[in-house]
Amino acid sequence: MVSGVLLSVLACQAHALCSTVATTPVGFGSVSSIVARTTVQPSSTLNAGLRCSGSLLSVLALNDHVYATVTSTRAGLVGPTGDVITYNIYATNNTGAVYLINRGTQYDFARNSILDLLGLLGSVTPKTVPMYFGTITGNNVAAGVYTETLSIFWDWNYCSGIGALGACLGRDINSGTVTLTVSMTVNNDCTVSAPNISFGGAPVVSGFSTINQSINISCTKGSPYTVGLDAGQNASAGRRRMVSGSNSLSYDIFKGAGTTVWGSVGAARRSSSDAEVNPGNGLGIGSQVFNYNAKVYTDQLTPAAGSYLDNVILDVGF
């Protein structure tokens, strides 16, 4: 007689554990001060410091959680002059309010189907948890490198193995703190409003009126700069010239209400501290106004009738 023993094998689903790991920094890149102030800048990290080396449960119970609590000694990205760029933190690349991670408040990655969205549920590939970021517009800041170091406290408690009958075979309960560096480089930039100069018409060179106008410039907060006007396309003998075919009409552009030619090199340029309105370094928000006057030289022969034109390049230097 042959006797046998029936061995009952209980099938179970085992799950590897989670752990905190060194993070991957967040970089917003290099942007102009104007773009940083007016346009939301997105960024992200694929590794916010929590790594699960195998699949989590396909269904999370109500008492399971994966908390992240983000804190910092700062209120945002801080630059060299103390200016701050504020930003939001999100659990996914969806910027809806339900995914917003408020500083100092536990955010549960186990809720709102986030772990499903991240592909951690049912996965057999080790994965790290990402975080997403978006700047808040309206920050009027100086140029420079802006940084912040976040502290992220991860705290998790979930069933780490299920028996054949659905019973929990064990729980993964642990916590850990990681740091995450966030940075952005802000570059100098300006907006310029410069009207065309029109002398109108006159029968002789002495009939052209003096034109008094202004150039409005808005540059990065705190940045000194200079403004230059080049000699135009047709300069000759130290004077700017408008041309019509082979004929020319000499003129110039002078600083403020004076007689000093506004040029593009050295002392011929104008500094931000020389503005007639709001002199000094750039304001970021609000314009600095540079007045000028333009005249047709009267010590020249009146050229043939025609439409005379020149193009002058304005440049801003930091």
UniProtKB/TrEMBL annotation:
Tell me the keywords, alphabetical order: Signal
Keyword Signal (UniProt): yes
What Pfam family does this protein match (any one)?
SCPU
Domain Spore coat protein U/FanG: where?
A: 12-151, 177-313
SMART domains, A to Z: SCPU
Q: Does the keyword NAD apply?
A: no
Top-level division of the source organism's lineage: Bacteria
- Extract the signal peptide range: 1-16
- Under which name does UniProt file this protein? Spore coat U domain-containing protein
Write down the species.
Pseudomonas vanderleydeniana
